[in-house]
Amino acid sequence: MKWIRKWILRFALLAVVLFSALAAIAFYFPQKILCVDSGDAKADVIVVLGGGFGSHERPQRAAELFKNHDAPRIIVSGFGDDEINRRILIEDGVPANAIQLESRSRTTKENAQFTIQLLRAENLHSATIVTSWYHSRRALETFEHYAPEIKFYSRPSYFGFNRADWRYDFSRRVYLEFVKLPGYWICHGISPF
């Protein structure tokens, strides 16, 4: 019986050490875990997600990709800032007739579900997702979960990517992703990797 307790103690100690190491890596290098960038990719449409840190980096990144001919049109997904993002896209040179709004979604899960309805209705086969770098893994995994038949790419904005640029509210958003990733896995079955 004593040897069983010894093995349980060793296993528990090993688990604590591994968890602590992972927590340290996540704290000091969140970019390595949270950011997914598919690199240059051509798609049927660019999907720019609402939210962000108020710097409007997401629609600016989407406009940049549009002008690079990565896709011929853009879907703006997200209730609340969809009109603002549409206006920014137009100001950045995207023609109004190349922009479609999805204005019902309030969460990443809803961004995926409602946007995928549009993609399927138009028989589109690929989409590039534009969001903040720290949100890119969860966004990509969520879209892939709900539409495995569609090819999704991730081309995030890198606003605030350098740790020196972080402010308290921004760093809180970054670290909150480490709660949301397993939360989406537990609540919705969306694997973080």
Characterise the protein shown here:
By secondary structure, the protein is α/β, with parallel strands linked by helices. It has two domains: 2-32; 35-188, HUPs (Rossmann fold), CATH 3.40.50. 51% of the residues lie in helices and 11% in strands. The chain is built from seven helices and five strands; from the N terminus they run ααβαβαβαβαβα. The chain has helices at 2-28, 30-34, 57-67, 82-91, 108-121, 136-146, 168-188; strands at residues 45-49, 74-77, 99-102, 126-130, 151-154. A five-stranded parallel beta sheet has the order 3-2-1-4-5, sandwiched between helices. Helix 4 links the parallel strand 2 and strand 3. Helix 3 (57-67) crosses helix 4 and helix 5 (108-121) crosses helix 6. It is elongated and about 75 Å long. The termini are far apart. The model has no long low-confidence stretch (mean pLDDT 88).
- CATH architecture assignment name of the largest domain: 3-Layer(aba) Sandwich
What string, H for helix and E for strand, traces the elements in order? Answer: HHEHEHEHEHEH
**Any idea what the radius of gyration is?**
19 Å
Give the name of the CATH superfamily of the largest domain: HUPs
Which fold name is given in CATH as the topology of the largest domain?
Rossmann fold
What low-confidence regions span 5 or more consecutive residues with pLDDT below 50? none
Q: How large is the count of helical segments?
A: 7
For the biggest β-sheet, the strand order reads 3-2-1-4-5
Which percent range fits the helix content? 40-55%
Q: How many beta-strand elements?
A: 5
In total, the number of domains comes to: 2
- What is the mean predicted local confidence, pLDDT? 88
Strand residue percentage: 5-15%
Distance between the ends: 39 Å
Shape: elongated
- CATH class (first level) name of the largest domain: Alpha Beta
Main sheet record:
5 strands, parallel
